[in-house]
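Figure 3 (text version): structure tokens given as input.
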């Protein structure tokens, strides 16, 4: 690996910690990121000729802090802050390095809370988290979400400006706000994972790059919040779902439904780790949250040797609990699929039809896909064809559109329209 590639790899590894530490010291996330970027630019200028230092992370941190001092001294209002930074930099007490290392987890966690602050719009939280906490570049995030780099850059810049204008302090949320704020961070991580698990745009249905970043973020959070069961529940959920990636699409990139996946190709390492995380979540002795319940559902699938051998009654029971804890039409739709395999299509269709008046389902392609499948099973072929055609029109990727249209064509060929 050449020096430039080494520096780019170090950016992803070291930048979140550097930004977090600087943000705590100077109280400004935007300035902290600028300083970290300047340190990496300095590395790009100096390391190719001088070589990578023995402790590159420490070199980058020291360079960024010196640049903070230089910047503060150039600003009249920043001279006092410069003096404070300089005093901290010159402190050579024997335990200073250990104390600094001890603070890194706290700083990183605080940075995650800041990136997912309620004053930011959801899309801004996602972009800022991937930029500051995951260490992705603006170009990488833009490619991941299929938007121009300039658009993504503006989104990140506006988010940092919003944090500054709203005077959001660099500190952990108070105890009474912690559950909600942890939930906001987990929501962002899961949004990133879901975009990788089933893309909402573009030609690729599965985006492993995004899913990997989300799992990496989840594991970081699990290390920072060892007493929060929902963090482990989310990691378990993501890993159990990701274990099926190799079988979720065929050689042409078209979706392969769970029923037809080759379970021998599921990633057993991810399954083992995911089930261990699920056990960790349930072992903390707290009521199960939405992510842990969904992970438990994924656990039933992971343990089943065959699709037919799945404990569908157990999955329905978990969906019943999830519907009470986090009610939504999507949960009801997934519950209906489980009911199909435990109680039959008529029971499942009754649940799906209870959602017909929900406007959110009118634009959700999987609603039509599920309802069309249930109607076919009940011999209502004309209605089924209409549902599958409508679902294909709404499908976000061409592969899903093709799959739905193929199902419609095959169903009509095997079961001519009734009436």
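Below: residues designed for each position.
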């Amino acid at each position: 690996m050449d020096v430039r590639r080494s520096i780019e790899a170090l950016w992803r590894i070291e930048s979140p910690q550097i930004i977090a530490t600087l943000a705590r010291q100077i109280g400004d996330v935007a300035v902290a990121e600028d300083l970290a970027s300047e340190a990496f630019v300095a590395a790009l200028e100096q390391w190719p000729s001088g070589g990578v230092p023995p402790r590159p992370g420490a070199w980058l941190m020291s360079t960024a802090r010196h640049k903070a001092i230089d910047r503060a001294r150039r600003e009249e209002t920043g001279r006092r802050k410069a003096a404070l930074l300089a005093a901290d930099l010159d402190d050579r007490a024997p335990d200073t390095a250990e104390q600094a290392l001890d603070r890194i987890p706290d700083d990183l966690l605080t940075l995650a809370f800041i990136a997912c602050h309620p004053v930011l719009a959801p899309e801004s939280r996602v972009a800022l988290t991937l930029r500051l906490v995951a260490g992705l570049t603006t170009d990488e995030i833009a490619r991941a979400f299929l938007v121009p780099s300039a658009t993504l850059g503006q989104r990140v810049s506006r988010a940092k400006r919003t944090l500054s204008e709203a005077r959001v302090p660099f500190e952990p949320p108070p105890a009474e706000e912690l559950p909600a704020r942890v939930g906001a961070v987990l929501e962002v991580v899961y949004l990133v994972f879901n975009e990788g698990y089933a893309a909402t745009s573009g030609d690729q249905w599965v985006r492993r790059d995004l899913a990997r970043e989300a799992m990496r973020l989840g594991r970081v959070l699990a290390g920072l919040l060892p007493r929060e069961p929902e963090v482990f529940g989310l990691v378990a959920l993501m890993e159990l779902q990701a274990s099926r990636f190799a079988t979720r699409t065929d050689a042409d990139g078209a979706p392969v439904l769970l029923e037809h996946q080759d379970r021998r190709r599921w990633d057993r390492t991810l399954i083992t780790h995911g089930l261990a995380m699920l056990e960790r979540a349930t072992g903390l002795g707290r009521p199960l949250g939405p992510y842990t319940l969904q992970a438990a559902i994924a656990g039933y699938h992971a343990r089943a040797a065959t699709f037919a051998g799945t404990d569908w009654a157990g999955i329905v029971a978990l969906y019943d609990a999830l519907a009470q804890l986090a009610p939504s039409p999507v949960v009801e739709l997934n519950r209906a699929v489980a009911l199909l395999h435990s109680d039959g299509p008529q029971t499942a269709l009754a649940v799906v039809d209870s959602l017909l008046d929900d406007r959110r389902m009118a634009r959700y392609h999987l609603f039509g896909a599920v309802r069309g499948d249930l109607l076919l099973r009940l011999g209502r072929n004309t209605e089924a064809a209409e549902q599958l055609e409508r679902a294909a029109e709404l499908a976000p990727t061409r592969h899903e559109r093709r799959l739905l249209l193929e199902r419609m064509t095959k169903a009509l060929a095997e079961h001519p329209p009734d009436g």
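Residues 26 and 174 are 20 Å apart (CA to CA).
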